């Protein structure tokens, strides 16, 4: 279903970038033997694989968010009563009949008690799972920082510096999914619950922001950890140097041939 050019092409561009950046990130992690990352290495590898799986979903199942009065939808199974509720507005905005699409609609008001009850139960369970995930992230982050503070007197200066850098990277990796994934979901769930209408541009932007997560996540770690930054600089420097050498070599050969002649 076509919404606009940004919604169609930007997630695909981010998916392609994800399949380029994440494998390079995995290569840098496995190649770098100077930095002792410990078990954090395996956590970052899992993040990279998860990022590429998210990008794969963006390619095959693009996410679209649409809110109308007291209802919002993603994709999924068909419920005729809810589809009729958004049918006129949906056709005006997208030019397509929702009765011909497979979608999931969460309707909070203006429906039968059974549909409203199912909506509140479903959104309630999703909210519990989401808040539990955030709570676990914050809790384990706090435990990690506390453990590092307890062991700081027994660590060398180099190890303390590395642990501080890894902690900063972990904090950024916690903030990134919160902003790029959880907030758009909460926004799409709760906006129609309170009858708030802020315009379709913000709803379309939410799905685009979600597709940026697999790209931002590895880049944030690369820019925070100096050892990864140096690897990127070395690669870029070698690439630029090789291009310079290939450009200057023919001119030198030409001068030599002219002198010999």
TrEMBL record:
<keyword id="KW-0472">Membrane</keyword>
<feature type="transmembrane region" description="Helical">
    <location>
        <begin position="42"/>
        <end position="65"/>
    </location>
</feature>
<protein>
    <submittedName>
        <fullName>Protein CBR-SRJ-21</fullName>
    </submittedName>
</protein>
<feature type="transmembrane region" description="Helical">
    <location>
        <begin position="12"/>
        <end position="30"/>
    </location>
</feature>
<dbReference type="InterPro" id="IPR019423">
    <property type="entry name" value="7TM_GPCR_serpentine_rcpt_Srj"/>
</dbReference>
<feature type="transmembrane region" description="Helical">
    <location>
        <begin position="166"/>
        <end position="189"/>
    </location>
</feature>
<keyword id="KW-0812">Transmembrane</keyword>
<keyword id="KW-1133">Transmembrane helix</keyword>
<feature type="transmembrane region" description="Helical">
    <location>
        <begin position="120"/>
        <end position="145"/>
    </location>
</feature>
<feature type="transmembrane region" description="Helical">
    <location>
        <begin position="209"/>
        <end position="228"/>
    </location>
</feature>
<dbReference type="Pfam" id="PF10319">
    <property type="entry name" value="7TM_GPCR_Srj"/>
</dbReference>
